[in-house]
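Quick one: structure tokens for this chain, please?
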Amino acid sequence: MIIGVPKEIKNNENRVALNPAGAKELVKRGHTVYVQHTAGEGSGFTDAMYEEAGATILPTIEGTYAAAEMIIKVKEPIEPEYKLIKEDQLIFTYFHFASHEPLTKAMVDSKAVCLAYETVEKTDRSLPLLVPMSEVAGRMAVQKGANYLEKPLGGKGILLGGVPGTLPAKVIILGGGVVGTQAAWMAAGLGADVTIMDVSLPRMRYLSDVMPKNVKTMMSNEFNIRKMIKEADLIVGAVLIPGAKAPHLITRDMLKEMQPGTVLVDVAVDQGGCIETCKPTTHQDPTYVIDDVVHYCVANMPGAVPYTSTIALTNATLPYAIQLADKGWKKAALENPELVPGLNVIKGDIVYKAVADAFDMPYVPVDKYLEEELVNS
């Protein structure tokens, strides 16, 4: 298969979808890998490193898309890329369709095959391609939140862990999944007073067992959230409903109940955000203030640590990329059920129900395409 790795053009996105080690593994299996000139530089990987791994460097993004049967990316295509995507081309990347109607319609119109990292799902309901970036984002959420608690940046002027004789900051984490767990470890390690709020009692029992003593758990509901936010210093939104838009757990009116200088970090921004006043920001302009509450809503947080993120992402995606390249997407999906929920849009049809429901668009079960493959084979 011919595989293309374009340079990411989203604002301040320095990650690349495939590191040289990953490129080498694909080339070893007889595949052709085209990497756009300087695609890896932001992550510390030079064109020469890719060439040494057996990849071919192409000068432009247009040439990379035109040459490839499968495009491997990090972030969803943005508007300048829409016209570059070809019919039947396989696009393997993070899409987060349910929060972005123009992207969804563009991919439907392209008649490409869109396989989303974030909805590839194991039999235990875990999301193996979302986990590495969720781990990065969860840890970064606290790192950034601690920074913006500083007074010159709009915060309360509180040191997250305090010092002897002063109380540590109160950190509320909405969601006890991968992002929430990593955020809790980070905040606890810095000495904060941490509360994880979740709706699953089994998950909270587990977290109570493994977390240090400065981490508590609490049932997530509107009453408890309203109670906790009144004294919170940092609130991390870490809610995920796979493939669907995140629910608003912090509503507009709740900001009035928070103290001035409270910091909100919404890691769920890619899926529409779990904070109603959340809107996507960039590393270039990461925050805004509403009702004296600081909002940090960067949609590609791991892009700020691209070396770590690129290696972590390639480690997770490469086994699936190899299957897709070796077998084609239909056969790979039939032989590996984990790939089936990753299929979101196929040749003009939305085949992931949560995405179709988000925009009241027609839904076509993915079985239509997989059954065709069974018949043809």
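Residues 306-327 form the longest helix (22 residues).
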